[in-house]
Amino acid sequence: MGSCLSAESSRPLPSSPSGSLGVRRRKNSKRRLGSRTSSFDSRREEQLHKIPGRMFLNGASDFASLFTQQGKKGTNQDAMIVWENFGSRTDTVFCGVFDGHGPYGHMVAKRVRDSLPLKLSAHWEVNINEDVLKEISLNTTGSMNSEDTAFISADEESRPSIDLERNRKAA
């Protein structure tokens, strides 16, 4: 189980108990070259650890606190995250608790914890950029329309005077 709550002061909490306590490795477990736990995944995980404002282990900041405790039933299959300044916005915090189920539930929960915020942020940026482009396009179209309208109205204003001059010359 995990929890995410808001806090007003920062207070460091002990590191995650899921690190070395209570976790046993199989004696014959070896990484396979084509497995999901390749060096690419560990490099990606290292990069995620370095992102400022992103918490996923027990800890606290000025705005949030995370805490989980290993139970007696086996591997903790929950993963959690608090990401302050999410999407490069100082007023946005992403909070998530992901509940894993089944023999690989802990791996699925961690994968979702690591990939979902990145996908949301990327999708958000694309939509923001599309909205900006639409606004620029509308503003450009609007300004062109106002220029065209000004040209047409100036043209229409000059027509009566031209028509009067033609009528005078004809008479």
Walk me through this protein's architecture.
- With 171 residues, the protein is of the alpha+beta class.
- It has one domain (2-128).
- It is 45% helix and 16% strand.
- It has 2 helices and 6 strands.
- The chain has helices at 39-49, 105-170; strands at residues 2-6, 54-55, 59-60, 64-68, 78-84, 93-99.
- A 3-stranded antiparallel sheet has the order 1-4-3, with no helix packed on it. Strands 2-5-6 form a 3-stranded antiparallel sheet, covered by helices on one side.
- The protein starts with a strand and ends with a helix.
- The relative contact order is 0.11.
- This is PPM-type phosphatase domain-containing protein.
- It comes from Vitis vinifera.
- Residues 9-22 have a biased composition (Low complexity).
- InterPro entries: PPM-type-like_dom_sf.
- Residues 1-45 are annotated as: Disordered.
Largest sheet composition:
3 strands, antiparallel
Net shape: rod-shaped
Low-confidence runs: 5-34
Q: State the distance separating the first and last CA atoms.
A: 98 Å
Rg calc = 30 Å
Could you state the order of secondary-structure elements as H and E?
EHEEEEEH
Question: Characteristics of this structure?
Answer:
alpha+beta; single chain; three-stranded antiparallel β-sheet; 171 residues; 45% helix; PPM-type-like_dom_sf; PPM-type phosphatase domain-containing protein
Summed up:
The protein is α+β, with helices and mostly antiparallel strands. Helix content is 45%, strand content 16%. The chain has one domain (2-128).
Task: Describe the SSE topology.
Elements (H helix, E strand, L loop, with lengths): L1 E5 L32 H11 L4 E2 L3 E2 L3 E5 L9 E7 L8 E7 L5 H66 L1
Antiparallel strand pairs: 1-4, 2-5, 3-4, 5-6
Protein name: PPM-type phosphatase domain-containing protein
Organism: Vitis vinifera (Grape)
